[in-house]
Design a protein that fits this description.
Elements: H1 3-7, H2 13-49, E1 54-56, H3 62-67, E2 74-78, E3 81-84, E4 88-89, E5 95-99, E6 107-110, E7 115-123, E8 126-128, E9 131-133, E10 147-153, E11 156-158, E12 161-163, E13 168-171, E14 178-180, E15 183-185, E16 203-207, E17 212-215, E18 218-220, E19 225-229, E20 236-239, E21 242-244, E22 249-254, E23 260-263, E24 266-268, E25 280-285, E26 288-293, E27 296-298, E28 303-308, E29 317-322, E30 331-332, E31 339-342
Parallel strand pairs: 1-2, 2-5, 3-6, 4-7, 5-8, 6-9, 7-10, 8-11, 9-12, 10-13, 11-14, 12-15, 13-16, 14-17, 15-18, 16-19, 17-20, 18-21, 19-22, 20-23, 21-24, 22-25, 23-26, 24-27, 25-28, 26-29, 28-30, 29-31
Length: 345
């Protein structure tokens, strides 16, 4: 539209004023429309330009692409579904980054593989922006099967949705696992729980190595534990996360020496699986140097916080439970030597 030509037309008086006003309105509408178009185009360009590396599309075999790429490759995984029958191998500092512009993530799924991503001995890898589901397993292959993500040292999982894996969403990792802004739900099954005997490994996230960190994540409706730190995983942090509806406990700290920090979490409605031993919101078993504060509990089965001393090292010492909102939940184990429970209302 040529606005100068319109304004220069043969108009006088009121008609000219009306024409000017109409032209300004049209210009404003067109301008806003242009800005919106540019914004949408910019957002799309930004989303597709956040990943520089080897671009992968749903028509390709992701397992094969990863296997034929050198260590340290960045895989830019475009939106769609990637069905795999063999685990995707993660090596070195590989980066698997999902690209999407809507509410979904690229989905890496299986109905055959015992792990979706096998990070093995890799170190410093990143898995970001992906849905990961379907890892299979049972008594015939436990404990290292049925995991959405298996293995990895200093592995970072960011903005992922890990769901419906038979054993755990993430498990069998080495030191330095960090999970950020992710959703981990509906992982685990009877076969991988205490109900079916040992070993018991089912969880949203399970680690037995030092340096486990979970921040700003949602850990819900997993068959057994939400986040399980076992066998002296030493330093562990769970902050700003939601842990609800998990079968046994929201957070399970077992025989760890710490330091462990659990703060700013919502821990509700956990422990309702029939037959689960020691159901609770936060379960601390023979652990030391634990600081749990500013968490919100509620509707957890039997206890909001349960502390147990069962004779295993490192025992119970320097366990502080303070300034939590209990919402009617109870605390068990506060009278044990080495435990302090204060200002929990």
């Amino acid at each position: 539209m040529n606005l100068p030509a319109i304004l220069a037309g043969p108009f006088t008086g009121a008609s000219k004023l009306f024409t000017i006003a109409f032209a300004l309105v049209v210009a404003l509408v067109l301008g806003v429309s242009l800005l919106i178009t540019l914004a949408v185009q910019s957002a799309g360009a930004q989303a597709s330009s956040t990943c520089t590396g080897k671009h992968v599309y749903p028509t390709q075999n992701l397992t094969t692409v990863a296997a034929n790429s050198p260590k340290g490759t960045t895989f830019c995984i475009h939106d769609g579904t990637y069905n795999i029958s063999v685990p995707v191998r993660v090596e070195g500092t590989d980066r698997f980054i999902g690209l999407y512009n809507d509410s979904t993530r690229p989905a890496v799924v299986t109905s055959k593989a015992q792990q979706v991503f096998n990070a093995g001995p890799s170190s410093g890898a990143l898995i970001k922006g992906l849905k990961i589901s379907g890892a299979v397993g049972g008594n015939y292959c436990e404990p290292n099967c049925g995991r959405g993500i298996q293995g990895g040292k200093n592995l970072t999982v960011r903005n992922a949705w890990i769901t419906n894996n038979k054993n755990s969403g993430i498990g069998g990792t080495s030191t330095g696992l960090r999970v950020e802004n992710s959703r981990i739900d509906h992982n685990g099954s009877y076969s991988f729980s205490y109900l079916d005997g040992q070993p018991s490994t089912a969880a949203g996230i399970k680690s037995s190595q030092s340096g486990l960190t979970v921040v700003n994540s949602t850990i819900t409706d997993n068959y057994w534990d939400g986040v399980w730190c076992d066998n002296d995983c030493e330093a562990v942090t769970v902050k700003g996360s939601t842990l609800t509806g998990n079968g046994k406990s929201g957070i399970h700290a077992e025989i760890l020496s710490g330091p462990a920090v659990f703060s700013g979490n919502t821990i509700k409605g956990n422990g309702r699986l029939n037959g689960a031993n020691h159901p609770s919101g936060l379960l601390i078993v023979s652990s030391s140097n634990v600081d749990a504060y500013n968490n919100t509990f509620g509707n957890n089965y039997e206890h909001g916080v349960r502390i147990i001393k069962d004779g295993r090292a490192p025992g119970v010492s320097n366990v502080k439970i303070h300034d939590n909102t209990m919402s009617g939940d109870t605390l068990s184990g506060c009278t044990l030597s080495g435990v302090s429970c204060q200002s929990n209302n």
